[in-house]
Each structure stands twice: as structure tokens, then as C-alpha cells.
Amino acid sequence: MPLQAVPYIFILGTLYGTTLLAGRFSVGQFEPSMFIGLRLVLASLIFIIVTLLSRKHSWPRGRDLWTHSLVLGVLGTALPMTLLVTSLKYQSSGMTAILITLGPSLTVLMAHFTLPEEPLTRRKLIGVLLAFSGAVLLMALGESGLPDVHQASPIGYLLVIVAMISSSASTIYTRKYMQNTDTLSVTTARVLLAALLVFPLSLVFVGV
């Protein structure tokens, strides 16, 4: 891994951890789907403004781009975000964060079977086994990460695992079909489509 990538990893980890902490607080204030719907609406507005003001990037165009963005919006944004925040009703943000580390391992395994150029090497296999062993141990112990909950609900574990499978599938989908597309255009389209999916459904089934 190049050293130039290290600062981005730390920034991403900080943002991800902060988001989980905010999510843990939010489950006591909002229904998870409504919280995610509001987040996506705000994020899509910001991306739209940035895209329209950008001189280097254009508004997403083309049927293929919007179709692929819809798949990514569901698999990589709407579904995993909603499931992860919902899991915080059953366990701590720290526990969810630890289980999220299964994501790269799942991606490696899925890529081995779907992307010929990314076979599972011995070093990758060792990393996958280490990641899975830690997560399996915590689940076997029934750890929730909450001081007042001695036995965690398996629902929290299941929600995170399904979210990571969905997110890994979106990563592989991006690698396979969208390597040559403009990053900002795709992100704008996928976040906007995810917002148009989650927020209206939350209004109908949950309410404000």
C-alpha cells in the first residue's frame, strides 16, 4: 500500500466512526429509515450543488449511467446505510464498527468468484481468516458492547452482515461496470436515487 493512501484511510476511518456515533445517538431520536432518508436528502442536495458549480464535472447523463447508479444507490447506499443504523438499536456503535471490518474480507471472497483479475492469494486468505475469526469470536460470546445488555440480539449481527454483503456487491459491481465513469457524476446520481427511494418510503411507512 502506498504511503499516500494512509492519510485518506485515517480520514475515512474518522468520518465513518463519527457517523456511527451519530447514528447510535439518532436511534433514540428517529426511526432508522427516516434518519437515513434525511441524511440522503441533505447529501444529495450538496452533491447536486457541487456538480452544477463544478467546471471539471458535468451533470450525470446517459441511460447506462443512471441505470448503474440506481443499482449502486440500492446496493451500496440505501440498503447498507439503513441496515447499519438499524443494527445500532441492538448493539453499540463500537461493536458495529468491529463487524464492519468484515466488509473488505467479504469483498475479497466475492471478487475471487466474480472478477478473474482478482484471485484469492495466500496472503489475502490469511487476512480474511483473521478478520472472520475476530468477528466470529465476538458473535459467539454474544457481545453487544452495551453495559446494560449482557446478551446481544443476533438481529444486530445479521443486519451488519447483510449490509456488508450488499456493500461488497456494490464495490464489485463498480469495479466491473463503472471503472471509466466520472466519480462525482456517479456519486451524485446514486445518492440522489437512494434519497428518492428511502425518504418517500420512510414518509409512507414510518412518518416524521
Indicate the overall shape. globular
Radius of gyration: 18 Å
List unreliable stretches of 5+ residues: none
Report the mean per-residue pLDDT as an integer: 88
For the record, give the distance between the C-alpha atoms at the N and C termini, rounded to a whole number: 45 Å
**Secondary structure: helix percent:** over 70%
Main sheet properties = none
Structural class: mainly alpha
Number of strands: 0
Blueprint (SSEs and pairs):
Layout: H1 5-26, H2 32-53, H3 63-87, H4 93-100, H5 102-114, H6 122-141, H7 154-177, H8 183-205
Helix pairs in contact: 1-4, 2-3, 2-8, 3-7, 3-8, 5-6, 5-7
Describe the structure.
This protein has 208 residues and is an all-alpha fold. Helices cover 75% and strands 0% of the residues. The protein has eight helices and no strands. The chain has helices at residues 5-26, 32-53, 63-87, 93-100, 102-114, 122-141, 154-177, 183-205.
Short key terms for the protein model shown above:
mainly alpha, 75% helix, 0% strand
Structure summary:
With 208 residues, the protein is mainly α.
